[in-house]
Amino acid sequence: MQKINPIIGVLLLLFIFSLAGCGSGTGEDNTPAWKAQHVVFIGLDGWGSYSVEKADMPNVKQLMKEGSYTLQKRTVLPSSSAVNWASMFMGAGPELHGYTTWGSQTPDLPSRELNRNGMFPNIFNLLKEAAPEAEIGAIYEWDGIKYLIDTLSLNYYRNVPNDNKLNTELTRFAVKYVKEKKPTLAAFIYDSPDDVGHADGHDTPGYYAKLKELDDQIGEIINAMKETGMYDNSIIIVTSDHGGIDKGHGGITMMEMETPFIIAGKGIQQGGEFQESMMQFDVAPTIADIFHLGPPQVWVGRSMKQVFY
């Protein structure tokens, strides 16, 4: 039997060890080779696309400039809150996930499929199943959100009622959470555009004043991300569940049905406005794409792949 040259043997062993390391799909920091290590999702309830051009929102418009966006993302019907937040998080419409009304707390129709937590498959559970150590959280003003976010898959969640009408409490908790935990996926959802839309009306001075205040709050979250050093390895999404007309919503006018979707950060095209059609249920598959998560068969949404390099 021919002997192997010792030098060749050492080289073969080094080659085998290198293959073992590469096969894990992880980087030098032992984190998954995702498109970005952090996703911060900021939702503005009741923010219609019609308002973007006129709104004084420099932080949001900087994200639009630095990333990709559409102002033609459409709601599912009805154009109201629970059914649309559910569709965003669950990758499907009400016919499948079963949440059909403004205030649905449980499925009004039997969900077509359930995960191990007894909920329709959603982006929070999908990430937690794939990466159990991922820090996942949600902070929200409208209490109805807690029925839609699969709290059993979250490390942290908190309802912060908008008592002072300035949204500073949610921002305070969001900034604290970012600085302390550097979350893998965080959802921060403000309710006040919808409140002002119902009280003062959509497309009114009061409505635009609220959007300006919220832009300041978004700026604080971005600054916190920069202070922690996570900003350069993050993707930020800013979007909405529905718009409105006069003092209401739920109908089929474009002011009610068209909502912004803005995405910026690591690996995102500085492509400006994209023209491909987008629905609410395309949001979850787009986030799943960032984390290389295969969408469940029951999801009907598609990733907006054109926004990625």
Automatic annotation (TrEMBL):
Organism domain of life: Bacteria
InterPro entries (alphabetical): Alkaline_phosphatase_core_sf, Phosphodiest/P_Trfase
GO molecular function: hydrolase activity
PANTHER family in the record: BIS(5'-ADENOSYL)-TRIPHOSPHATASE (PTHR10151:SF120), ECTONUCLEOTIDE PYROPHOSPHATASE/PHOSPHODIESTERASE (PTHR10151)
Name of the protein in question: Putative phosphodiesterase
Record organism: Proteiniphilum saccharofermentans
